[in-house]
Amino acid sequence: MGLQARNTASRLPSTVNDLEKAPLVVDDVDSSDLIKDHPRQPFYKHPLSLLIGVLLLLLTTFITHQFDFEFPFPSPSKPLPGFIQEGIKQCEIIARPPPNPKPFDEKRKFNDRFVKGTKPTWLKNGTVWTGEKDGTEILYGADLYLDGGVVRKIGSPDELAAFVKDKSDVDEIELGGAWVTPGIVDTHSHMGVDSAPALRGSDDTNSLHASAQPWLRSLDGFNTHDVAFNNSIAGGITTMLVLPGSAGAIGGQAFTFKPRWTYENTPQSMQVEPPFVINTHGNGSWDRTDAWLFLKSACGENPSRVYSDTRMDTYYKFRQAYTQGKKIKDEQDRWCESPKTQTTPFPTSLEYDTLAEVIRGKVKVNIHCYEPVDINSIVRISNEFRFPIATFHHAHSLWSITDLVKQAWGAIPPAVAIFATNARYKRESYFSATEFAPKILADNGLSVIMKSDHPVLDSRFLVYEASQAHHYGLNFSQSLGSVTTHPAKAMGLDHRLGYVRPGYDADLVVWDSFPLALGATPKQTYIDGIPQIINPHVVQKPAEAQKIFSEGKWDKEITETIATRGETDLTPKKSAKNILFQDVAAHYFDNFDATTFENGRGDVVVQDGEITCMGKCVIEESDVAAFEVIDLKGGSIAPGLITVGSFVGLMDIRQEKSTRDGTAQDPLKEEGPVTDGILVRAVDGAQFGGRDTLLAYRAGVTTAVAYPISNSEFEGISYAFSTGAPHPLAEGAIQNPYAALHIALDDNSKSSISTKIAILRRLLLGEVDEKTELVEALKKAAKGELTLVVKTSKADVIAAVVRLKKEVGDKVKITILGGHESWLIADELAEANIGVIVSPARSYPGDWDSRRFLAGPPVTNHTLPSYLASHGVKVGLGIVEEWQARNTRYDAAWVYANNPETFTKSSALDLVSKNLDELLGLDLEGGKKGWVAYEGDLFGFESRVRGVKGYGNGQVDLF
C-alpha cells in the first residue's frame, strides 16, 4: 500500500519540549519504526554521496580563497594583516602606467599653485609667440587674460572684452606690441644646491661617498635662500629641473621647481608636480603621486676624475646598480601576483626602488654624457635594462652620432641639452664641440634644448644660449622652443608648461625686444599669474630690435664640420693684401672723419694690408683685378678687440695639466737663492694655436692678454699677443712681453687680505731693499712705469686699494680686475683715477665678495659698466674662462643694448679695445691693434666677421 500524507496540524507540539519528544511523522508511519526496520548507512560509505561531498569541499575552498569568505557560512571576514594591506597599496602604485596626462585646456580655471588674492591680469596688444604649430605661430596684437594662476583666454581685444565681465579688480597692462613668450624652462640647473653666494655651509651639489647613489635627492639640499632665484627670474626663468651634480655615475634624484617666493618658503612649496607629498588630509604620510620622478646620471671624465675610475669601472657600477634595481623590481612584481598569501611585507629598497621605477619607465633619466664611447655605453645599458632616456646633457659630440642615439630603448629618442659656445674646458669637450651642433641635431630629427648648468652659466641669460644657436643656424622657432616647449616636453610637463595656451600655467615673459635679439631683457616675468619684478626698469629698444631676423647661414662651415667630425682647421684658409670692401655703413676709428660715408654707405679700400681709403673710393680699372671684392651688406670696419681675464695663451684645455703652462712660483716663498723673489713672466710660457685662441681671432679678437697661472698674491707679469699668430716667434706675435704686474687680493691663497695689503704697502713705499725681480717691479709701479692690475671684487678690498694709492702717491697706475662691488665706491674710484675691468661682463653674485652686485635691467636702471662710466670711471670688459674670448664683441653689444643712454656704439667698443689698452698698460699703437671687417651690424647677431687684420701681419685674413 502506498504512503498517503494527511493533515497533521492538530498534532503539532505546543512547546519546544514537546517538539523534542514528538516522533517524526511521515504519513502514518512512526519514525521510530522506520529506524528499527531500515537502519541508515553512514554518509561517507555511500560512493555517490562521498563524491558529492568532495566536490562541495573543493567548491567551498575555492570560494573561500577567491572571495575572502570563511567557512562554515555565514561568518564575518577577518581584516587582512596590516603589512598586506600596505603592500596592496604599494602594488597599486607600481602598477600605474608611466605618467601621460592630457594637456590642460580652457576648462582648467585654477592652477594647483594659485595664490589666493592674486588679481587677474589683462595683457593687451602683445606679439605672442605661443609655441604652437611647431613654434611657428605668432599672434600679433593679441590680448591675454590671466586668472586663477592660468592663462584663461587669448584673443583679439573684442574677444577679451566679451570674456572679461567684471573689470573692477583686473590689472590692465598695455604691452604696446611687446613680445610675449612662455616662461623660460631650464632643464639643467643646480640652483638651490649649488647656491649663491657659494659658501661651504650651503654646498649640496654632490655627495662624494660613492659613485652610484640613486637614493639621494636634490630636494633634501635645496636652499631657499639662494640669491640667484630673483636674478634668474629677471631673465625670464619660470621653471627649472634641479639636478644633483655630476661627480658620480648616478648622482641621485632631481626635482622640478618654480623659482618664485612662496608664503611657506620651503623647498616642497616651490615644486612643480612633486612625485611625493605630505598627506595633510590624512595621517601625514609621505605619499607617492602620479607625477614623474627624475634621475641624474653622469659618465665620462667626471666620475673617472672624482672616484679614480676608468670608464670600465664606471659602466660596471651602472650595471651593478641597475641589476639591483631589476632585482627589487622583480621581487615586487612577484609579491604583487598574490599579495594576500604573502607572509612577509612588500619588498622595498631604500637604495634601489628608484631604479626599479626607472625600469618601469616612470622616471625621466637625465644623463651628463659627452663622447661617442660614453653615449654608446649608456645606450647599450638602456637596452640591457629596458628603460628610456629622457635627455642627454652636455653631449658635445652627440651631433656626430645621431643614428646611435635613436637606438636608445623606447619609442622616443632622447632630447639633447647643450651649451651654445661653452666648450673645450676638458678633453671630452675639446675636439668635436661645435657651435653648429643645434642646427645639425635638429636637422636629424632630435629635440634640441639649450641649458645653463647654473651656476656654470648664469641661468638668467639662458635665452642668450638660444640666441647664439639661432645665429649659428637653428631657425627661430626651434631656437625659442629650445628654452620653452622642448625642455617642458623632456621634463614631462608639456601638458601645463612651455606654451601660451588657455588652461596652461600663467608663466609668461614680456620682452623688451625680439627674444633672440642680442641683449633681449624681460620687461616682466609672470609665474603662476603673479608678476615677479617689482617696479621693473625697462629700456626702450629701437624698432629693429623688435624684428625677427633670419638664422645664420653657415652651410659651408657645417659641411666641413661634419666631414672632419668637428676637428676643423681653424687657421685662416684665405688671405689678401688688396681688398675692396663695398656697402660699408660705419667705421669706428678716431683717425677718420665721422662724415666719411655719404648717404650712409661707402667703400673701404685696403692696399698691402693697410686701409688707404674710406668713403667714395676709386680704383683704377687696370688695378681692379688685383683686388678681392667683398660686399659687407651694410657692415662696418672697427678696431680689433682685446680679451683679458682668462688664460688664453697659457693653456689649451683647462682640466688637462699637460696642456697648460703650470702654476707660477710664489715670489714671497723662500725657496732658495735662485727662486727667492722671482717674478714670473707669462710670456715665457706662451702657447699659440689653441682652439679657443683661434676662435677668438675668427670672432674679431686680435689681441689677448694673459697673466701667469698662480696661487699667490703676486701672480706675475702679463703679456699681450696676437691671437692669429702661428707661434711666439712669428712677426708681430708678441705685442707686449712685459705689460702689467698682476696682483690677487681675493681668496686664492691662505694669507689674509690685510696681510697682502701690508706687504704691498711695504714694497710700494720702498721699504724693502732686496734686489729681487719683485722689488724692482714694484719700484717701477710706484713711479707709474708699470701698471698694477689688482684682482678683486669686494668693495671693502677695493676701498683698501684706494687708501693705499693715496699713501703711495698719484703716480701709481692701478686697475681693478673683477670689480663687481666697485659701484659702491664709484666716485672714490674716479677721484683716485683707478679704472675697473668688469670680469665677467655681466655680474653674478657667485661668491661672498660679489654678493652686493648691480643686477642691471630690469632690476636696476644701470648695469655695472654703465654705472661706473656714468660716474667717471674708466671701464673695460673682461672674461673668466678661455672659451668666452670668442664672445667679446657680444659682451660689448650687450652693454650698449641695455645702456644706450650711457654708451654710444663707439664708446661701447672702447670697452673691449681702446679702454683695455689703457687700463692694462699695453701701449698698442696704430696698426698693432689690428682691425676687423664685419658683414652686417656688428652689434647684432645678424653680423659675422669677414676679414681680420692682425698686428704685424701684412695681409688680411678672410673668413
Tell me about this structure.
GO terms for molecular function: allantoinase activity. Residues 180-529 form the Amidohydrolase-related domain. The protein is 26% helix and 20% strand. The radius of gyration is 37 Å and the shape is globular. The protein contains 27 helices and 38 strands. The model is unreliable at 1-44 (pLDDT under 50). It has four domains: 32-78, no CATH class; 184-498, Metal-dependent hydrolases (TIM Barrel, Alpha-Beta Barrel), CATH 3.20.20; 578-640 and 931-959, Urease, subunit C, domain 1 (Roll), CATH 2.30.40; 641-929, Metal-dependent hydrolases (TIM Barrel). It has 959 residues and is an alpha/beta fold. Strands 3, 4, 5, 6, 7, 18, 19 and 20 form an eight-stranded mixed sheet that branches.
Short description:
The chain has 959 residues and is α/β, with parallel strands linked by helices. The longest helix has 27 residues, at 311-337. The chain crosses the membrane at residues 48-67.
Note the topology:
Blueprint lengths: L15 H6 L3 E2 L2 E2 H7 L9 H21 L14 H14 L25 E9 L2 H4 L2 E10 L2 E6 L1 H7 L7 E4 L4 E4 L1 E6 L38 H6 L3 E6 L7 E8 L18 E3 L7 E3 L4 E6 L2 H7 L3 H27 L15 H7 L3 E7 L2 H14 L5 E4 L7 H4 L9 E4 L8 H4 L6 H7 L4 E3 L11 H10 L4 H6 L3 H6 L17 E4 L10 E6 L2 E2 L23 H9 L10 E3 L2 E9 L14 E6 L2 E6 L12 E12 L1 E4 L46 H8 L2 E6 L7 E4 L1 E4 L11 E3 L3 E5 L8 H12 L8 H10 L4 E6 L2 H14 L5 E5 L7 H7 L2 E4 L25 H7 L4 E3 L10 H11 L6 H6 L3 H6 L11 E5 L8 E6 L6 E3 L1
Parallel strand pairs: 3-6, 3-7, 8-9, 13-14, 14-15, 15-16, 16-17, 22-25, 26-27, 31-32, 32-33, 33-34, 34-35
Antiparallel strand pairs: 1-2, 3-4, 4-5, 7-18, 9-10, 10-13, 11-12, 18-19, 19-20, 21-38, 22-23, 23-24, 25-36, 27-29, 28-31, 29-30, 36-37, 37-38
Helix pairs in contact: 9-10, 9-11, 20-22
